[in-house]
Amino acid sequence: MYTNLSVFVAFVLLHGPPAQGFLQKRLDNGLAKTPPMGWNSYNHYSCQPNQSIIRSNAKALADFGLADLGYHYVTTDCGWTTPDRTADGALTWNTTLFPDGFPATGQYIHSLGLGFGVYSDAGVQMCATPSNSNQTGSLYHEMTDADTFSSWGADLLKYDNCYSSADHGYPDADYAPTSSPENRYETMKAALNDTGRPILYQICEWGLDFPSAWAPPLGNTWRITNDIIPAWRTIYRMINQAVPSASYAGPDHWPDLDMLEVGNDVFTLPEEQTHFSLWAIMKSPLVIGAALNDTVMTINPDSLAVLSNKDAISYNQDNLGVSANITRRWSEAGLDTWSGPLSGNRTVVAFVNWNNNTVQATLDLPDVGLQSAGYVKDVWNNYTAYGVQTSYENSIPAHGTLLLELGDTKPSGYYTVDKCGRREG
Length: 425
Ligand code: GAL
Prior knowledge:
Layout: H1 5-15, E1 37-40, H2 42-45, H3 51-63, E2 73-75, H4 102-111, E3 115-121, H5 142-151, E4 156-160, H6 182-195, E5 200-203, E6 221-223, H7 233-242, E7 254-256, H8 269-281, E8 286-288, H9 301-307, H10 310-316, E9 325-330, E10 335-342, E11 346-353, E12 359-364, E13 370-378, E14 383-389, E15 391-396, E16 401-411
Parallel strand pairs: 1-2, 1-8, 2-3, 3-4, 4-5, 5-6, 6-7
Antiparallel strand pairs: 9-10, 10-11, 11-16, 12-15, 13-14, 13-16
């Protein structure tokens, strides 16, 4: 594999040792052994964060028991900075929005036992709404900015892709760039490494140039799609886009399906369960994008229960670290099965009803590689069936999902002798 020792040593110094079990080199830095979990300001607050919003949501993560369930990083997305750098060339915060200082917000987050996430951009400006608000980006300033983030105690960097295409005059978004984003993301990766501070690195370049092919050695996570939007159609668009990337998931390197819309009052409860089930079993980062608590509102209890579901979270955080993928689509019936292995010889299945009405649906166990299951835990229905042979049936509400954990299983095609005809004499 390596032509000589010096090439191997150079590779190890640059990337860390190759992760075991993969032919392609993949990140193995111990910062995201399981998919990262946390909260991010963008889906609810767009590019208008402020210190009160960030603090009250961070506190809610702790107060609502979400931190104890694994939600750890609190990330302020776009809108925190200014059009200009300081006299010595550093990024700085908007003092109107963060009057006590951005680092003080980080200290507050740390005081809650949570991780401090920061946001920048591999372009000359950051993404911002409105797009002409001109917040300076990190392109050509990577080492300076990595040092700044490190000095502020940052634990995570989400690194975006606006205003990055030099060949096209740095437009806001360039979906047909003339060169791969890879080099720009690699430069920031090297800068983060040079700080010596462990900073979880989230690559956000909207899935351009199939990042699953090049991002696993660079990022702990990489976005595989353009942004999630607050509309049901976004869920099936994104989950279908996730299919070619599923096999690239593994400890320390996870395809990112984008932040959650659970709790933003755009989906029905069954839709939120579908969204959360699929993101969980596809091993996406689970990043809450709702307002948990601020001066205006508190998240509704049903959505909080979805985000707090211990079974779904345990499938996401399972130490086997293998993503589910689609195993069968009934196009006419409007049903899918998505399934994958869990530790302890278990299987997880999301049986999804894309129809606009409730259906009575039968999961054929061979469609997920099984003949029988000692038990089937039907998570959202809070019900467990025992001794399940060949199939499992239940009703699924419109746009809902049966999230199933199957244990004590036998592979498909397996029949015990006493269940088969026996020839005698
Ligand atoms: C997009 C990114 C979103 C959010 C937004 C901020 O490029 O994909 O997650 O960060 O920018 O404007």
